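Researcher: Here's a chain I'd like modeled. Treat it as a single chain, no partners, no ligands.
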Amino acid sequence: MSKFADTARMKEFASPLPQEDYVRRLIIADEKLVADATQARDLAGEAYDPESQDLMIERITLHQKTIWMLKSFLRS
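Model: Modeled as a single isolated chain. Structure tokens:
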């Protein structure tokens, strides 16, 4: 896991944590995914690659929904 965390330029999750802390860290990870996918979508657009652009739009949408659901969990 530390290799994946290093590659993503993120801190590895430490265990054990309270569940709210795990959720907060998942939000941070999903926000990074949205930012990376947005950059990839823009690059695909510049390269006139609509298939890759569409794939990134799907990923962005999925992770934005996930962020919303995780934040909703923290509010309850």
